[in-house]
């Protein structure tokens, strides 16, 4: 075929062939029908097909996080710091207000200190008296001069000094009595010992005289009467010597008895004083413990903040009203302790979350697109669901969960005095896994098909 001859337009859909040069001379609808496809249209079609193919491939390969959304608020660990009276007291004044930031040791509540101060004063008086008695007893035991301490009252000092002198004089008088009897009996023993020695010499002499009288009587020189007188005199000497020996033994026994009584009295007195000292030391220790409690009660008549905190709640106690022991007066939220987030998990999501799942938290007071996000992890989840009233929806169930706030450095553009405060509401996105993008598109379709197929 001659190349210079223009090609005919191929027949399409039973339309007659037309030379390309003749297209411009056809009616408008035929001109549009037989006009060649614009290049831009072909490129657009190719681009759309490529884009759809790319997006489909990306959806099949790309992973996205699966998150569980939960609303909640910032809370302090525990249930806040409750300030209460140790004992039944009268409220004198409340020095703070709700929302106030208090420093450590700042006065919160002033209670009437009359009763604690009276108890403390009485116990201090008892303690001083017990110490004075203990000092006096130790002086008695050591038999040393007694010098009362200046902490006791003058009347107590005088009374204990007088008691010490009287008891010491009684002790010494008893000892003098024992010593007097011992001295008397010792003198009697010495006298009897001399008598025994004399009697022994007299007995020996009488024995010699009796022997001589016996010899003379046997020789017939002396009379029998003289011999019998010598025998009688010798027998009297023997009896007198035996009697003196018995008196000496009795005196010695009596001396030992008096000495034993003296020693027993001294030991009994020492034991009695030692027991009194031990009892007094126990009493003094008990008074010291009671005094420590009374001092603490007096100190607690002024309730102070243990840490830097914010006042969350104050009970309404008018001035001069009575507060019972242990009843809360106000509640503090410690500011130095790390805060947490308490969120509410819907029952449909509870099967997917686990401890230590990462979480992103958005404060409602500071929109995240401008101020950023906080990060943390799931610390714990409640073991059972709770029920709360929801406006317009009646009662709804939820699982309470606690999130640990570990990173707030991603927050930005915040006011200079910004700080997290318990009660700030937030929304948490807890990451529970990943999935392909394509599943997000296919699962609803598959679920709809599956449900529609089984519907009656």
UniProtKB/TrEMBL annotation:
**What organism does the UniProt record list as the source?**
Fundidesulfovibrio magnetotacticus
Gene coding for it: ltxD
Q: Entry's Pfam families? A: Beta-barrel_AprE, HH_AprE
For this UniProt record, give its keywords in alphabetical order, as a comma-separated list: Cell inner membrane, Cell membrane, Coiled coil, Membrane, Transmembrane, Transmembrane helix, Transport
GO (cellular component) term, any one: plasma membrane
Ranges where the AprE-like long alpha-helical hairpin domain occurs: 117-295
Q: Which GO terms describe its biological process?
A: protein transport
Q: Which residues form a coiled coil?
A: 241-297
Q: Where is the AprE-like beta-barrel domain?
A: 340-432
Protein's UniProt name:
Leukotoxin export protein LtxD
């Amino acid at each position: 075929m001659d190349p210079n001859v223009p090609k005919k337009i191929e027949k399409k859909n039973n339309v007659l062939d037309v030379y390309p040069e003749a297209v411009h001379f056809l009616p408008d609808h035929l001109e549009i029908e037989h006009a060649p496809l614009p290049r831009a249209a072909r490129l657009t079609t190719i681009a759309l097909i490529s884009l759809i193919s790319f997006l489909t491939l990306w959806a099949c390969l790309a992973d996205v996080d699966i998150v569980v959304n939960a609303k909640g608020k910032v809370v302090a660990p525990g249930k806040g710091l409750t300030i209460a009276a140790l004992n039944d007291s009268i409220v004198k004044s409340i020095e703070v207000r709700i929302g106030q930031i208090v420093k450590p040791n700042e006065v919160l509540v002033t209670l009437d200190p009359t009763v604690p101060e009276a108890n403390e004063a009485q116990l201090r008086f008892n303690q001083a008296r017990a110490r004075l008695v203990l000092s006096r007893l130790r002086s008695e035991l050591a038999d040393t001069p007694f010098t009362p301490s200046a902490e006791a009252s003058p009347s107590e000092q005088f009374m204990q000094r007088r008691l010490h002198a009287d008891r010491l004089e009684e002790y010494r008088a008893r000892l003098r009595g024992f010593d007097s009897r011992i001295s008397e009996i010792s003198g009697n023993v010495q006298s009897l010992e001399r008598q025994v020695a004399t009697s022994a010499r007299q007995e020996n002499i009488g024995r010699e005289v009796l022997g001589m009288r016996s010899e003379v009587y046997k020789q017939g020189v002396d009379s029998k009467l003289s011999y019998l007188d010598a025998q009688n005199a010798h027998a009297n000497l023997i009896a007198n010597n035996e009697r003196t020996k018995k008196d000496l033994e009795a005196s010695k026994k009596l001396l030992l008895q008096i000495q034993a009584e003296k020693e027993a009295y001294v030991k009994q007195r020492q034991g009695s004083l030692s027991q009194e000292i031990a009892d007094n030391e126990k009493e003094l220790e008990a008074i010291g413990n009671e005094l420590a409690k009374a001092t603490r009660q007096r100190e607690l008549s002024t309730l102070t903040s243990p840490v830097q905190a914010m006042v969350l709640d104050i009970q309404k106690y008018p001035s001069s009203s009575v507060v019972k022991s242990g009843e809360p007066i106000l509640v503090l939220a410690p500011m130095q302790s790390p805060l947490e987030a308490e969120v509410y998990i819907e029952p449909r999501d509870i099967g997917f979350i686990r401890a230590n799942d990462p979480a992103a938290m958005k404060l409602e007071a500071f929109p995240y697109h401008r101020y950023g996000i906080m990060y943390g992890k799931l610390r714990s989840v409640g073991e059972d669901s709770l029920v709360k009233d929801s406006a317009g929806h009646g009662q709804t169930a939820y699982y309470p969960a606690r999130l640990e706030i570990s990173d707030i450095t991603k927050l930005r553009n915040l006011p200079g005095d910004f700080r997290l405060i318990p009660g700030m509401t937030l929304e948490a996105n807890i990451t529970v896994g990943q999935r392909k993008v394509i599943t997000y598109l296919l699962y609803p379709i598959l679920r709809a098909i599956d449900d529609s197929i089984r519907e009656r």
